[in-house]
Fold this protein.
Amino acid sequence: MRDIVGQRAGTSALLLGNEAIARGALEAGVDFCAAYPGTPSSEIIGTLATVAKNIGIHVEWSVNEKVAVEVAASAAFSGLRGLVAMKNAGASVAMDFLTHLNLTGIGDEGGALLVVVCDDPQAHSSDDEADTRWITKIASAPLLEPTDAQEAKDLTRWAFDLSEKLKCWCFLRSYTRLSHAHGDVKLGKILRPEKKAVFNTSKHYIPFPTTSKHAILHEKMLKVQEVFESSPFNSYTGPEQPEVLIICSGSGWTCSLEAVETLDLSESVGVLRLVTLWPFPSKFVAKYLKLTTRVLVAEEVDPFIEAHVRETATSYSNTVLPLEIYGKDSGHMNPVGEITPDRIIYALAEILKLQYQSRETSYEQAVQDTAKPLVINRGMLWCPGCPHRASFLSLKKAIKRDGRKVVVIGDIGCYTLDVFPYGPHQSNIVHCMGSGAGSACGFGQLAPLGSGQPPIGICGDSTFFHASIPALINAVYNKSSMTLLVLDNGATGMTGFQPHPGTGRTATQDPAPVVSIENLCRAIGCRVEVGDPFDIKGTTATLCKLLKDENGPKVLILRRKCELVRMKEERTRPYRVWVDPEKCVGEKCGFCYREFQCPALFHDKETDKVQILEEVCPGCGVCVDICPYKAIVKEDIK
């Protein structure tokens, strides 16, 4: 992670959006930071963890997002400033606590709490592109959405002041193209924490009586709306009487500016940028709706702003002219995926009846023709040496040997690559973190209802701590006949190798007690086996044995360190591996490169032999065991 504290106030730095948020928190005097890693949000806490000891703040990776919010809120209750970060999927986990928190308030002792949620339009690293802006309406929380790295830093700092002043938690929404984009940021002064944590025991933060607390919260949101109506972060660019008014937020702002410039419409099209989104600044927006008769709303995923623009136009119909509102409802903007300048350009061109073509057809065809022989198709595969590849091969063999059409339920982690186009496709169902265990628990109760298909749930080690334990306890309690496969690679591998309760270290790299997965599972009453995923034969046999055992929940922990972590630590390969051309039958077999699909193995069509890319091969030696012709050889590296 980049050092975000080394440069003086007043200087500029090139920062990721997530780093800018972290810097803004430090400039706001944050005391307590927590999160569960989730792309595209992980770098916020990852960055803060590297400076925590020098600054004197607490930073932790919590076991899940709900716990992260709860521990950070405890700091706010004690008069400190807390920050919690998560991705869009994590917001669903945290909602149970968040929907109650603003009913109680976060303290009268000067505390503040900022909840940063990073959405993922286009689902680059997610299983959905859920729009979390709606959460703020459910939870009655102020919603802020920065448009660039500088604003991300400044808005973070401002949000803490807003939270402290109005005694409510605030929601800062980032998104992939901000969190993972760099921008030039002018730095302010970092405030060193000086407060002491003191909880006033004469105070009671409870949501009862709910109706009166709800009424107070509505009054508080009216005060927030007054602040938002005059917020300096909202702005307008364009003519006094625009022919078309673009209303946008987030990345829609930069895309809108580019679209207006490309079409040379600066004299006829205005751009209204909204940063304070909820409570919606309707008076501010209505002031600009009066200037035009046509409005284009440019935002990503859901029509959140569009819905509120329509409401505002109706509420101010006595002063606003009849409007044509274009956006997702009209089909001018796409309701899925990321926003781009081209989408806005084509929308404007259609509204204003302009002719526009980004490139000549012949140029586009030339690009396609040139790209075909030059661009190599690299599907999403497990890394060379990844233990998950071996685990799923054993799973496939065990299911075939069992013969009862085993139901496999996965969840979210590196192992989810199983269901991608180049994966072995063993998982029948995949949903959220922990659902592998939870759904398997349900399938394990279906035998009395006619099912003869044993279930296998799959989770990773970090996911086990995050969300699988309650489901496993439920399986024990209700005597569900299921098998849980825990793929323990010693890290939160999918999001950047962050530590968790089973790794023995904290976010700040301090030693920590190791929570034993097998001891925990045995303590609650599960049958537990531990194996090495690289032992294909042994793992397959163990899985077959567990599938035949119908007496309650069973757990198989397949433990081997993530190859990227192992190589970083050991800096060497365990074996040197090569192919014996005399024994290799090439295309006649092809199991190692077609079925096992290790990226280090490839078929040489000229020789019809398999070859190994030494610069890619991690030397794990698994291919030696799976080759049916014993054509792959390994030797120890001394």
In short: The first helix runs from residue 17 to 27. The chain has four domains: 12-229, 235-351, 387-568, 572-636. Residues 572-636 form a domain with the Alpha-Beta Plaits fold (CATH 3.30.70.20). The CA atoms of residues 248 and 298 lie 5 Å apart.
